[in-house]
Design goal:
This protein is 46% helix and 6% strand. It is of the alpha+beta class and 419 residues long.
Length: 419
């Protein structure tokens, strides 16, 4: 279920491990350590600085869109060569970053108990040792994940007498894991993939990807980070309460490129909606029917803290009924479309249901995310679901480009879906 976390346009994604209760999306994300070795050689040829998503200034010529790349039977051709093929994740060794964790000896000293052996924390000791001996960032990330798992497992034991020391170690490991994710799964790589796909894709996918790629270049003081959970977009403010940019956290640790790229497109669509409509991430421009006075923004710690209240003051239930109807219609098409497997149908239906919960925030985002899925799944061009999805995505793209979306009143005969 979608919730706004202290003023962030947020998407929750399922993950293998639950985040610590002490962390939230409102806390500032750790900046990349300055001691991390230069990654420009690893990411040679990309237009993004080092291993982050901060972009070098460059002339905006816009990607070219070739004729539809389809087979005679309507299915998409496999892409070969070109930019997309040049940025496959490398299996070569990555730089090793400093391990901001205690040594095994230091941890043993801190967690020592009189007359007690270390049987129940032996796995933690071993995992911590592996963190210090791992050969590169990829090995470090694997070791740190094992350390976090060992800490969580110990905390679940009855009478865990070393709980405080283990809890502190786990928090240190989580912070290190965040740094390692930026090295092993650099956002610049996924941004470059979006650029490559935008230039190679036919139909509405090309313009949509070009649009979000452009949005990524207009983040101001904001940045893009790969995270395990709590994907979101949030505005950043300075000490004078002036907006200076937008930050994006996306599910960037997943080995499946489809998951990473589609989630990044989802979050950049939030950014694009705010750029286009300027209504606290609300994705239409209909006048509010709430009847109240829009509260002034409350800025604290560089974030807007009353974003949910401001969103509520700009909503139009009739417009949302129409947007929800479009998503519901797509869900019905997906469930009976033989071009989608049962697993694909389930994933699409779940994501569309997520969008219907808060259509004023997630309408555009889930459409673009599923559009990317269809590309990776190579859904046939004759798929009724894909045809309707592309039509609705093109309509939404045109609205954002125009900077206005006045949703018409719901049709009495369509139950809210006007098309």
């Amino acid at each position: 279920m979608m919730k706004n976390l202290e003023g962030n346009a947020t998407e929750r994604e399922s993950t293998a491990r639950t985040q610590p209760a002490t962390r939230s999306s409102s806390q500032p994300q750790l900046s990349r350590s300055k001691s991390v070795p230069d990654l420009r050689e690893t990411l040679r040829g990309l237009s993004y600085e080092e291993g982050t998503a901060r972009l070098r200034p460059r002339s905006e010529t816009g990607p070219l869109h070739p004729p539809p790349a389809t087979q005679a039977d309507g299915s998409e051709k496999e892409h070969s060569g070109g930019e997309a093929a040049a940025i496959e994740p490398s299996s070569s060794a990555l730089p090793k970053i400093p391990v901001a964790l205690p040594t095994v000896g230091e941890f043993k000293a801190r967690s020592a108990l009189p007359l007690r052996r270390r049987v129940r924390v032996s796995k933690i000791d071993a995992a911590l040792a592996a963190c210090h001996t791992a050969g590169d960032a990829r090995g470090q990330l694997k070791a740190v994940k094992a350390l976090i798992d060992a800490c969580v497992a110990y905390a679940s034991l009855p009478k865990a007498r070393r709980a405080t020391e283990v809890f502190n170690l786990k928090n240190q490991a989580v912070a290190l894991e965040s740094e390692l994710l930026q090295v092993v799964y650099p956002p610049a790589q996924d941004l470059a993939r979006i650029d490559g796909l935008a230039a190679q894709s036919s139909g509405v996918l090309g313009p949509v990807l070009s649009e979000v790629a452009s949005a990524a270049k207009q983040l101001g003081s904001g940045e893009i980070r790969a995270v395990k959970a709590m994907a979101h977009a949030a505005r950043r403010y300075d000490d004078l309460d002036q907006m200076t940019g937008q930050d994006v956290n996306y599910i960037g640790h997943d080995p499946d490129e489809r998951v990473r790229v589609a989630n990044l497109v989802h979050e950049l669509t939030h950014v694009r909606v705010q750029q286009a409509f300027g209504r606290d991430y609300v994705n239409y421009t209909n006048p509010s029917t709430s009847g109240g006075t829009l509260p002034s923004p409350q800025i604290e710690g560089g974030r807007i803290r009353n974003e949910a209240e401001r969103q509520a003051g700009q909503r139009d239930e009739a417009a949302e009924q129409v947007l929800s109807g479009k998503l519901t219609n797509l869900s019905a098409l997906a469930q009976k479309d033989e071009h989608l497997s049962a697993e694909q149908q389930a994933e699409v239906v779940t994501k569309l249901a997520y969008g219907t919960q808060t259509p004023y925030l997630e309408y555009d985002t889930v459409l673009n995310q599923i559009l990317v899925w269809c590309h990776y799944w190579k859904i046939h061009a004759n798929s009724p679901f894909r045809k309707e999805l592309e039509r609705v995505c093109a309509e939404a793209h045109a609205d954002r480009q125009a900077g206005q979306r006045l949703v018409p009143a719901p049709s009495k005969t369509s139950g809210g879906d006007d098309g």
